[in-house]
Structures are given as structure tokens and as C-alpha cells.
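Run: sequence + 1,3-dihydroxyacetonephosphate -> complex structure.
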Amino acid sequence: MRAPLIAGNWKMNGSKRDARALLGGVAAGAASLQGAEVAVCPPFPYLALGEAELADSVVCLGAQDVSTESAGAYTGEVAAAMLAEFGCRYVICGHSERRDYHAESDTLIARKLQAVIANGMRPILCVGETLEQRERGETEAVIGAQLDGVLGVVGIETFADLELAYEPVWAIGTGKTATPAQAQQVHAFVRAKLGVSDRRIAQGVRILYGGSMKPGNAAELLAQPDIDGGLIGGASLDVDDFLAICRAAEAAAG
Ligand SMILES: O=C(CO)COP(=O)(O)O
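>> structure
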């Protein structure tokens, strides 16, 4: 049984005051949840606030990115050990915005996974296709190549220590959600592909869906057999919306 995980990716949004209010609201609202796990991933400067506000809460803290390097002359980078020091449990790796705006390769992303796991945290590895790729019928080829690019560096055993997120690029921040059937098809493809290498690991890995998940569509998406949670962007910035999605996950967990 894979307990659902709802993770909020705040991206580069909010102020210190907003962050404090959001953290407090989520911590209070999530206290009574059963069977679903909740995490929030604020921008780096708010991680200390997250550590403090979530100290007595069931909500986990996560980060949005990490360096491949452990220390040294890497201006602007943040090491995995630093994230661990602030109580992070999760680190988003290979988000499409980083693949696109920062030219992150599968090899670089694989090294980030290694850094995160070596420091006792769990990566949330994102994969997904663009609209053009979907329209050309390349969805599975693209996602398969993203997985192979990582697998070539880290091996299948690493997938026992991470979560996956399927985030179709065309659904991110656009209000266009993949239909439950479209999402389920890709999630099942990902699990089957990993299953060729290791069936037990493939059955255990949580595959989150991300891309305009909202209170209105969360229940249907989370009811799919291979959708094990959500990676939430815009709706994670609103306490009520985010908690409504968490409750949908709780209901899906039954
Ligand atoms: O990119 C996402 C989460 O990582 C999804 O963002 P939205 O929920 O805003 O579409």
C-alpha cells in the first residue's frame, strides 16, 4: 500500500509574512489528517521559518532544488547537507522549470539525487513532456528517455529511496490538467518501465501527479490506481485549496 503524498511546491512566490501564515495554516489544518502525508517546499530563504513553524507538526519540509556539490566555491548553490540541517525530508529534483530555464541534464539531475539520498533525504524526481512532444505522440519516448538518463547513472535501487512526479509541462500553471485517464496512462507506463528492472521497487515507488491539480479535480486524479499523490504549484499557495487537496488524498487512501 502506497500512502499518498501531497507536496506543495511554492516555487518563487510569497514574502516572509506570507510564508509564516501559509506554514501555520497548513500545519494546523493537516493535524487531523489520517493516511495521507503532507509536505511543503518553500523557497530557500524560508526554510528556517519552515523548520520552526513545522517543528511540532505532521507536515514535512522540502526544498525545491539542491547542488550536486557538497561544499566549496559554488556561488549561489545550496548543498544537500545544508538542507538536511534545516530538517528537510524531501528535495524536488529535475523540475521542468529547472530543466528548461537552467538547462539541467538527466546526468546532472542524477547527481542531485545521489547528493540528496547521501544526506538522508528523499528526492522527488520530476519527469514530463511538452505539448509539442505529446502532439507528436512522443510522450512515452520522452519520459522513458528521462528515466533512462537517470538510470544510466544511479541504477534502479535508487528508485527505492525517492518519489517520482509526472508533470506534463503543458499542464503546469496553465489551468489545463491532464485528464485522469491521460495521467493514469503515463503513471502506469512509468511503473511498468521500472518494473522491467525491478518489480518490487516499481510497485513500491510513489508516483505523484503535478500540473494544475486543484480541489475540483484532485479526487478524480487521486482515485487512479497508479497516482499516489500530487505535486501542487499554484494551489499550494492557498491554505484552503491545499488542505482540500490533502483531504482528497486522505479520502482516496480510504
Ligand atoms: O509545477 C508544478 C508543481 O511542481 C505544478 O504547478 P501548478 O499546480 O501551478 O500547475
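>> summary
The CA atoms of residues 128 and 168 lie 5 Å apart. The chain has eleven helices and eight strands.
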